[in-house]
Amino acid sequence: MTEHMPPPAQGCRNTPVLKERGQREVFCGLTGIIWLHRKMQDAFFLVVGSRTCAHLLQSAAGVMIFAEPRFATAILEESDLAGLNDAHAELDRTVSELLARRPDIRQLFLVGSCPSEVIKLDLGRAAERLTVEHAPRVRVLNYSGSGIETTFTEGEDACLASMVPVLPKTDARELLVVGALPDVVEDQMLALLDAMGIGPVRLLPARSIDANTAVGSNTKFALVQPFLGETHDALTRRGAAHIAAPFPFGDEGTTAWLRAVADAFDVSDATFAAVTDAPRARARKAIAQASDALTGKSVFFFPDSQLEIPLARFLARECGMLPVEVGSPYIRDALHGPDLDLLPEGPTISEGQDVDKQLDRCLAARPDLTVCGLGLANPLEAQGLSTKWAIELVFTPVHFYEQAGDLAALFARSLKRRAVLDRGASAVAAE
């Protein structure tokens, strides 16, 4: 791996985008609660939905019977859906009982679902009413996680966007890092920024409501997740300035992200090198060890998490893979443009989904690796294709230098598994 990888002569930022508006195969935005409730330690997520919503969350979280997580579902019964009950009165009662039993709750999110959207239950008005009732001890906010309104990772975007209007105002020149990260990764990032003399650094979401996260015209914010379009717009409306950069996946992406932040805060080249040279070297070594199985192999991305474009850039430029198609639920130039600049030209770039047409393109291309949602993985495996679950890339620590080798290994593992299975099948056939 070279010390510096220049951008390709022609990236994909100006590549015509294949826009599809058909049947989608993605999780709904409720899934984001699984990592958000772990991140915000004084928050509680109350989904106003059906038993199906409750089963989804229980299954996704793997909650044991004796656990008491910071999320629950206020079940809408048939009488609620039929308008026979006063749903707002029942919701108020449920919230009062919850807060009496859980005095540790400081932030309560009322999360809309498909059923609550269908019956037009005004959770925004409910949040305002309940905030007045339970202030100042508890702040009540509302966002939609409905599959009608949101796809997989957009639940986090909707949640963070709902928090922006109530953030305190500040005139301080501060960095705001936006997007939920595992605590260990967040600590690594903060250590790098602190070593460069950048601070104070504020976080959205913060681990508690008492954190000094504020926003104003002197705030500069950097995103660590590529699916935060609504949050980006909300912060811009508050006067904050976005630091555009590739996302911090792998050596190159992490270095480019840190470089953009360092430039915004006038960090010298010497300081930047002193802080990043050692972790960069570790990242390059780890990627090289993990990516032997990936070099020269083709990869096809179905749209799922909105991580697809920066991950395709990482696999192409740092692991030697050949992207065939890179699909994403949504593509926004302000967020994805810097990664598209670095993605070598060649792959089809698609936005949205018409799943039958995309399956046809995938099966015709016969890629060595297909990154897709859970619902498509088994059918594609039955067709002889190696797959990687997109959801694993959201739940696994993959950002910044120390996780770069693990990120490459996640993709390599799928190809190694296929090779083992093929060898086993050949041995059986030979007997």
From TrEMBL:
Domain Nitrogenase/oxidoreductase component: 28-383
UniProt-listed InterPro entries: LIPOR_BchN/ChlN, Nase/OxRdtase_comp1, Protochl_reductN
Gene Ontology molecular function: any one: 4 iron, 4 sulfur cluster binding
Catalytic activity entry: chlorophyllide a + oxidized 2[4Fe-4S]-[ferredoxin] + 2 ADP + 2 phosphate = protochlorophyllide a + reduced 2[4Fe-4S]-[ferredoxin] + 2 ATP + 2 H2O
EC number: 1.3.7.7
Residues that coordinate or bind [4Fe-4S] cluster: C28, C53, C114
Ranges annotated as spanning the membrane: none
Recorded metabolic or biological pathway in which this protein acts: Porphyrin-containing compound metabolism; bacteriochlorophyll biosynthesis (light-independent)
The entry's keywords: 4Fe-4S, ATP-binding, Bacteriochlorophyll biosynthesis, Chlorophyll biosynthesis, Iron, Iron-sulfur, Metal-binding, Nucleotide-binding, Oxidoreductase, Photosynthesis
Record-linked Pfam families: Oxidored_nitro
Any one biological process term the GO annotation gives: photosynthesis, dark reaction
Cofactor: [4Fe-4S] cluster
Cofactor note: Binds 1 [4Fe-4S] cluster per heterodimer. The cluster is bound at the heterodimer interface by residues from both subunits.
Family: Belongs to the BchN/ChlN family.
Quaternary assembly: Protochlorophyllide reductase is composed of three subunits; BchL, BchN and BchB. Forms a heterotetramer of two BchB and two BchN subunits.
Role: Component of the dark-operative protochlorophyllide reductase (DPOR) that uses Mg-ATP and reduced ferredoxin to reduce ring D of protochlorophyllide (Pchlide) to form chlorophyllide a (Chlide). This reaction is light-independent. The NB-protein (BchN-BchB) is the catalytic component of the complex.
Entry-linked NCBIfam families: DPOR_bchN, PRK02842.1
Name of this chain's protein: Light-independent protochlorophyllide reductase subunit N
Gene name for this UniProt entry: bchN
